[in-house]
């Protein structure tokens, strides 16, 4: 069977950001929205952590925020179902994971196929998971970097949208490499979101093509 083809919608988009921490990627996306570089609005910033700095910053920026305590739900399915309800209620077009430290359930991923993006601080499919900057140093690879990808049920393995490579230097520590990778994350994540709502992202099975 031929691969299904998906083309991102050219429209004024409605975005929801999911974060668990400092939220610097969310901030860069919001900056690009405010600057008019991305034709979209951030409708909701969601967190599973009540005290996430990113949530506070979103509030200071006048955005709607929502925290749901996962301990009040019987299981992950119920928790994600509640987030899905909030998402549908607001007619969200694109969900941006920005340092969201919970793995989405497969039913969540399936419900929003090609409508969830994530940023990962390594060149996928190398180094999925956590602490990947240190793992890249330990492996002795010469380059690492970052990847914006669509989210699919298999963690960190959805179709790759954009990547940026960062050389690993002799004296690199986890902190120094993470800082240089983060600079690239802040460029390619807003760029991917911009391309999405310009209708320029074309997905053929696993492969993503950017329309000129
Ligand atoms: C980033 O390194 C991102 O690649 C990873 O989590 C971190 C989030 O950082 N998924 P921030 O909260 O966006 O500053």
How would you describe this structure to a colleague?
The chain has one domain: Formyl transferase, N-terminal domain (Rossmann fold), CATH 3.40.50. Helix 1 packs parallel to helix 6 (174-197). The strands form 2 sheets. The protein has a 7-stranded mixed beta sheet, covered by helices on one side. A 3-stranded antiparallel beta sheet has the order 1-9-10. The model has no long low-confidence stretch (mean pLDDT 97). The protein is globular. The protein has 6 helices and 10 strands; from the N terminus they run E-E-H-E-H-E-H-E-H-E-H-E-E-H-E-E. The two termini are 27 Å apart. By secondary structure, it is an alpha/beta fold. Helices cover 33% and strands 25% of the residues. It binds 5-O-phosphono-beta-D-ribofuranosylamine (GRF). The site of 5-O-phosphono-beta-D-ribofuranosylamine (GRF) has 14 residues, from helix 1, strand 6 and helix 6. The site of 5-O-phosphono-beta-D-ribofuranosylamine has 14 residues, from helix 1, strand 6 and helix 6.
Task: Tell me briefly what this model is.
The chain has 212 residues and is of the alpha/beta class. It has a single domain (5-210), classed as 3-Layer(aba) Sandwich (Rossmann fold). The chain contains 6 helices and 10 strands; from the N terminus they run ββαβαβαβαβαββαββ.
| CATH architect. name | 3-Layer(aba) Sandwich
Q: What would you call the shape?
A: globular
Largest sheet strand order:
4-3-2-5-6-7-8
Report helical residue fraction.
Answer: 25-40%
- Return the string of H and E elements: EEHEHEHEHEHEEHEE
């Amino acid at each position: 069977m031929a691969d299904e083809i998906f083309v991102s919608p050219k429209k004024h988009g409605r975005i929801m950001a999911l974060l668990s921490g400092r939220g610097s990627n969310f901030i860069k996306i919001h900056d690009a929205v405010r600057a008019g570089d991305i034709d979209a609005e951030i409708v909701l910033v969601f967190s599973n952590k009540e005290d996430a700095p990113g949530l506070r910053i979103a509030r200071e920026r006048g955005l709607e925020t929502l925290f749901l305590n996962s301990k009040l739900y019987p299981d992950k399915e119920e928790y994600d179902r509640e987030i899905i309800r909030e998402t549908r209620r607001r007619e969200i077009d694109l969900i941006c994971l920005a340092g969201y430290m919970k793995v989405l359930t497969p039913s969540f991923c399936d419900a929003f196929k090609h409508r969830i993006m994530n940023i990962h601080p390594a060149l996928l499919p190398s180094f999925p998971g956590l602490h990947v900057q240190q793992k890249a140093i330990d492996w002795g690879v010469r380059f690492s970097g970052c990847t914006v990808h669509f989210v699919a049920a298999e963690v960190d393995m959805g179709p790759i949208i954009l990547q940026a490579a960062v050389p690993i230097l002799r004296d690199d520590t986890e902190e120094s490499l993470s800082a240089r990778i983060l600079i690239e994350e802040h460029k390619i994540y807003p760029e991917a979101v911009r391309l999405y709502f310009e209708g320029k992202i074309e997905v053929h099975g696993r492969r993503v093509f950017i329309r000129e």
